[in-house]
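Standup notes, structure subgroup. Blocker cleared on the NAP input:
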Amino acid sequence: MTIAVTSASGQLGASVVRQLINEIGKENVVGIARTPEKAAHLGVEIRKGDYNSRQDFDAALKGIDTVLLVSGMDDPEKRIQQHRNVIEAAKQNGVQKIVYTSIVGDETNTAFSPIVKSNRQTEVDIKESGLEWAIGRNGIYIEPDLEYIDHYAKDGEIRNCAGEGKCGYTSRGELGYAYAQMLLGNEHNGHVYNLVGEAITQATLADLINEVYGLNLKFNSVSVAEYAAERKKALGDFMGTIIAGIYEGIRNGVNDVPSHYEMAAGRPHRAHIDIIRDFKKA
Ligand SMILES: NC(=O)c1ccc[n+]([C@@H]2O[C@H](COP(=O)([O-])OP(=O)(O)OC[C@H]3O[C@@H](n4cnc5c(N)ncnc54)[C@H](OP(=O)(O)O)[C@@H]3O)[C@@H](O)[C@H]2O)c1
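Run returned:
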């Protein structure tokens, strides 16, 4: 069985490729990347694949049995057709199964909802493709908070608009493990899984970071409008709006969902404190 992973040059794609190499050996894994040279370090065959190009995927999916479609990074309205290019190419080129990395969240009410909505449309497109399928809805990655730790330490606070809302965080390492199992096991076909760890508040996240890093961060919650204005100033309109929308969703409770991680991975999700400890060591 040959398994291909799209966006293999990215951190999630690379995590899945590494896990698949462990499970089935590098000769059975193909990475597909918009920028192939950025994926060369993975040590597997790399083929070119830009989501904007149906032709790229007609070539890249030749001889592939199962493909992981990692959701794109473009504007939500562009993503739907980009993902369809991969789905259509999979159908035309004899791929038997498609696994998709979707996202936890709600389709209305926040500035992040257009992205969730575009992911839900791709879920429908995949279910209607006639291929075998499995879908993961990813929780929020914990790593970006840890990469931001110097800023938190300087400010003495984690500041956002999540209030008391709980968020089922995950990590790219945990997702890489779960997606490898979903690609390999037929028992996952026809399932939609929430791939999240324990749901925690921002105050608990601050406590965990404090314990591992020896800090004394406080969590300060601000209004959605105030936080959106701050983030847009710092990150520009597109990313600022997305980030504020994510924390608004957490405030509204949309990231506090039941976890299906163990069903997907065959083992429990790792504890957040252990993931944070490993991140610090690395
Ligand atoms: N759950 C979360 O918290 C969270 C956070 C951020 C993103 N996400 C979603 O999860 C996905 C994977 O995350 P990540 O950590 O791997 O992000 P990442 O490390 O930033 O990688 C993004 C990947 O998307 C690829 N890409 C962008 N546009 C593309 C296109 N037109 N055609 C093909 N590939 C394209 C990039 O290719 P190049 O190397 O050519 O640039 C890169 O491989 C993201 O794309 C996004 O949809 C989720």
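Discussed briefly. The first helix runs from residue 11 to 24.
Next: hand off to the docking folks.
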